[in-house]
Structure formats: C-alpha cells, structure tokens
Amino acid sequence: MILVFLDNVSGSIKKSSLEALSYGVAVAKQLGTEAQALVIGSANSDLTELGNYGVSKVHQVTGPEAFDAQAYARIVSDKSNELNASVVIFSHSLMGKALASRVSARLKAGLVTGAVALPDTSNGFVVKKSVFSGKAFANVKINTAVKAISLNPNAYTAVLGEGKAEVTTTTVSVDAKVKVVSSTKSSSDRTLTESEIVVSAGRGMKGPENWGMIEELADVLDAGLACSRPVADAHWRPHHEHVGQTGVAIAPNLYIAIGISGAIQHLAGVNRSKVIVVINKDPEAPFFKAADYGIVGDAFEVVPKLTAALKVGA
Amino acid sequence: MKILVCISKTPDTTAKIAFTDNNTKYDTNGVQWIINPYDEWYALVRAIELKEADASIALHLISVGGADAEPILRKALALGGDEAIRINIDSDDSFVIATQIAEAAKTGGYDLILTGKETIDHNGSSLGGMVAELLDLPYVSLATKLELNGTTANVTREIDGGQELNEVPTPVVISAQKGMAEARIPNMRGIMAARTKPLKVVEPVACEALTTTVSFELPPAKAGVKLVDAENVQELVRLLKEEAKAI
Questions:
Q1: A228 with A266: CB under 8 angstroms?
Q2: Radius of gyration over alpha carbons of chain A, in Å?
Q3: N or C, which end of chain A has less CB nearby within 10 Å?
Q4: Is position B8 within any domain?
C-alpha cells in the first residue's frame, strides 16, 4: 500500500498535501494497490471527507502537541512498518522537507524530493525531480523496496471525486525535544509556494513606498506577493518574499514580474511557473526571453491600469 | 562547545546548465565551483559569528567529495573555520553523504551540526534530516535565526505563513536559510591562515546508495514572448483569460 503523510497545520490539511494525496492515489493505481492517508494531530474538518480524494482509510495519530521532526518521523515510520507501505509520500512543504529525509534514513527507503511527475515504472521505479534550482530535471531511480517521495507544490493537481474514508484514531505518547516558545504570523497567511498566482516586483519600483499598487494588483488576483533579491536585501520587503535561486523557488500557474530585469538567479526560482508575464520599461530586459506575455512600459502606469482592467472583468 | 558545518561544492549560480554522455552527466566544462550558498552565507557565517562571540567554540567543517572539494574547504577555512574534514567519496545519493557525515560526527562530539537548507544543484533538502535521524538527534529545519544559551539552542524557523521560535537542547542539527546571517568575503589574513589549518582526509565507510540518478533533461524551451501594447492592458487580461487560462 501507499501511505501519504498530510501536513496538518493548526487543524487544517494543506492544499499541497491534497495534491500529494491525489498523487499517492495515482501511484497506487499504477502499482495495483491502494493509498491511505496519515494525519498527525487533531483536525478541524471531518477527515472522512478525504475519501473524496480516493483514499479508503485515514489513520489519525494524536499525541504530539507541536511539530517535532524527530517525534513525527518515528510515528510515520512506525505506521509505515505496521501497514507494510511500499511507498511513503509527502508534500515537499516546510514540514515535508524536515520529515521525509528523517523517515527515509529511518526506514532506509530511497528518497526523491521535489518530485514533479508520477513515477516511471517501466524500468524500475524512476521519479522525475526538479534540480539546479528549476533549471533542469533529473530522473532518479529508487533502488530500495520501500520508497519515499516528496511532491513539489503545484506539480500535480488534486483530483476531487466522491467517497468517504474510514478514520481510525490512535494516541501515542511522544518525547518531543523541540519546544515551541512563540510564533508570529506575517501579514499574509498564504504560503508563497502554494499560491496559484504570484505578483512579484523588483528594483524598478524605486522604493518600498511604491508597493501599494503591487499589493492592489495581488489583491484583485488573490495572489501571493514576491520580490527580487535586491529588494529583499535593501529591506524594502521581508526576506520570505524573496524568490530566486537563493530565496524561495516557486511554480505557480501565473507569475507576474514587475520591474524585475530577470537575472539568471531570479529566473532559476520562477521558471517552473506555467505562465510568466513580464512588465518592464526596458525592452532589452532579459526576463522577456523567459516570458510568455510581456508589456514594455512604465510599471507606474501599466500596473494601476491592469488592476483596473481586472476589476472590470471580475 | 563544538560546531560542525556541512559544506557542499556546487556550480556557481550563473553556471550554464548542460549535460553530456547522453544526458547522464552534468557538463562541468568551464564551471566555477563555489561553496553552496546556503552552507556558506547562512550556516557557516552564523557559526563564525557564534565563535567570534565565544572564543572557546571549536568550529569544524566537513565535506564529502573527491580532492576537487578541497579548494572549497580552504575557502571555508579562510572565512573562519578551525579545521576541516574531507570524506573521500563522490556520491549523488544524499543517504550516502549523510551516512559519512553522521559517522564522522559520532566521534567528533559536536553540540551543533549546521547545514544549508538545500544545495542549489541537487535541491534535495534532505541532508540535515538524514544526519539527525542517523544520530538520533533533534532537527530544526529552515532556520532563520539561531542563538546559543548554554546547552539550549533558541532557533527561529519558518512555518506556514510566519515564524516560530523553538527551544531545543543540544546536541542538535539545524538547517539554515536566508535571514540567519549575511554573506562575507574572506580577508587576506584569513586566506593566509587557511593554508596551514588542518584539513584531514578520511576514507568513507561502506554504504549502499539508496538512489541512482539515471538521466537529466532541460525544461522545454519557451515559444517566445507575446508582447502587448502598454496602452492596451485589456488585451493582456483577455489573453490571460482565454488563451493561457491562467486567471
């Protein structure tokens, strides 16, 4: 069977985990087996509803009060052993990145992180993943009987059907070494890697005081906000908005780059976006070469017009 | 207090990405090698800052790779490490790398093991977690701040939509990302001192690779940009809706 670990963030299952769940169901079909889900912690929603994504069973384990990679890895590994899982699937999310590697080492299960496609089982078990910060893909063969995969967010579309899953809840006692002292939320609760549309701006905006129009455009599109490295380095915008090779790598359906020239390091973080729109007053900006649509023009004039046009169409 | 920083060699961020041998090998022709930026700018520099605040800290560096990894270790020593270890094996399997580092760490008695959040070539994000699991140590990933307070590490890490402050006892493994420290350039004194700092070469322990990279491919080329007049943004909206179906 295929075991899919679902990120439970304050009681809610993340969108990227639902993608991983649908991916797991598809892998199970490929291998002629079934997929089951694992949720750690209490949930705010009815977990039987996860049956809509094609799983028959949801294993809920309560006990840990906060995320601790060590404690979680034990729970996931024990469950995988108990259920005799052949593939354990994670989302390549913040939680998944910390956990998949530990589970892989614990189970001696070959791991491919950042998977972008279903495995090719025609000759072994080969998974395609993003490498070189989005500039290439590698096909990686997993050599072990038990396998682990973490799926890149936005790489596989969640498939919603109809069904009810059977939920079994068990409680474990854990010895978590990591204690949470406090947490702070940033203004947006949208995780950039999960946003379907991202509006991003660069030095062309001239200063942080001009970000109002960028935020308005993002609002009308319900988009995540990003920026280029010079903007984050100059503290015009917070570091977590920096996309690129040394920031966050994203793959939204639509990426709108405003006043960003498109240095190779920036492109590396965004070139897996499905559609790229570039707005720049310099027709020679290298970003146009990587774009699907472009407007050569002054962002200070084009952006408000674009926001207005979108409002009319909405 | 002993700190171990894991250092990986990666192509420069502007390096051309091409493949040879029927797309099975990365073409290293003309590639400049650098310390993986996450290992250098964030993990290593933060470790150096901690050592600057407390001179009793011993700062060791480790890299798994062939002799061509040594210039990278020398540069890291020039920035501020005390001594370096190179485990003499080339592998593209993160479990093999993690096993070598964990083995070296077992005898090293480290209180803190730092890694970058991922390398910019493999993008695995898996080394820190694997090392932590192999050593049965706690692991805090994607850290943006780190303070040491006796045998406690206060670590701020990225969570969905914000930041979380964690308190964790040492020994601990931590993966670092942007925010942790600012990039530095080695000075001449550091470069000179690095020449005589110990760089120990250790033979690897036996370990089976759990994965094998079969081939590489480049993303399909873009069809070319479709330009829309700046006076006609409605047309862009129409294209995004009807042609690209992106909104």
A1: yes
A2: 21
A3: C
A4: yes
The count of domains in chain A is: 2
Between chains, do A294 and B141 touch, taking CB under 8 Å as contact?
Answer: no
Is A225 within the bounds of a domain?
Answer: yes
> Domain limits at A304?
192-313
A133 vs B: CB within 8 A: yes
Cα A265 to the center of its chain, rounded Å = 20
Q: Give residue B161's pLDDT band: very low, low, confident or very high (50, 70, 90).
A: confident
Is pLDDT above 80 for B184? yes
Q: What is the mean pLDDT of residues A146-152?
A: 98
Residues B44 and B239: their CA atoms lie apart, in Å, by: 47
Residue B241 covered by a domain? no
Mean pLDDT score, B31-37: 96
- Whether A139 and B98 lie within 8 Å, measured CB to CB: no
- Residue A39 and residue A141 in one domain: yes
Nearest CB neighbour to B210, from listed A108, A293, A297 = A108
ipTM of the complex as predicted:
0.95
Give the pair of three-digit tokens for residue A312: 């009319």
In angstroms, how far is the first alpha carbon of chain A from the final one?
44
CATH of the domain at A290: 3.40.50.1220
Distance CA B232, CA A285 (A): 20
- The residue from A136, A171, A206 where one domain ends is A171
Q: How far apart are CA A21 and CA A160, in angstroms?
A: 10
Question: Is residue A146 domain-shared with residue A245, that is, in the same domain?
Answer: no
Which residue is it, tokens 């709108």?
Answer: A256
Cα four-point dihedral sign A83, A151, B146, A185: negative
For the beta carbon of residue A77, count every other beta carbon within 10 angstroms. 21
Question: How far, in Å, CA of A242 to CA of A233, rounded?
Answer: 9
Q: What is the mean pLDDT of residues A135-139?
A: 95
Is A178 within the bounds of a domain? no
Of B137, B138, B211, the CB nearest to A140: B211
Whether A291 is covered by a domain: the verdict is: yes
Please report residues of A whose CB lies closer than 8 A to that of B132.
69-70, 102
Assess contact for A56 and A116: CB atoms under 8 A.
Answer: no
Domain span including residue B51: 2-222
